[in-house]
Amino acid sequence: MTLKKALVALLVGLSALVFGGSALAEPTTKDPVPVTGVWCDGDTYKCTAALEFGDGRWFADWNVDVYHGRAETRDMVPVTRLRCDGDTYTCTANLRFGDGRWVARWSVDVYHDRAAVERDPVPVTGMWCDGDTYTCTAALDFGDGGWVADWHAEVFHT
């Protein structure tokens, strides 16, 4: 009877590790920081977000497609808040859709810029995401106003 109880306890313990392992391996809730500005660069094909963190010289950037064409925003929803997380290397955009619990998330590079480098990218004037195409689009303040940047994102309900 003691051996049987020991085997059952061992199996229960192992099953808890197997079935509970994925829940235990999930990242803990991080503290993303607000974004103070976003700009995109058609030469490097990157958008960069300035992060409200530390000495103010922290940034997140991600690869984008930059092209001339009007942003067709009729099927997209506006971004209401943008935050980035240096622990998970992601930016998350809250979307104005449905019950307000829809978000778009994408991978970014997060870094500290030690030197105040003069940048030549252009400001973003608006940002939208589309849950059907899993794409976010930024309107760029450049030339005739017909320049946009877009990138792929996960879109999901929280």
UniProtKB/TrEMBL annotation:
User: Which keywords accompany this UniProt record?
Assistant: Signal
- The residue range of the signal peptide is 1-25
Tell me what this protein is called: Ig-like domain-containing protein
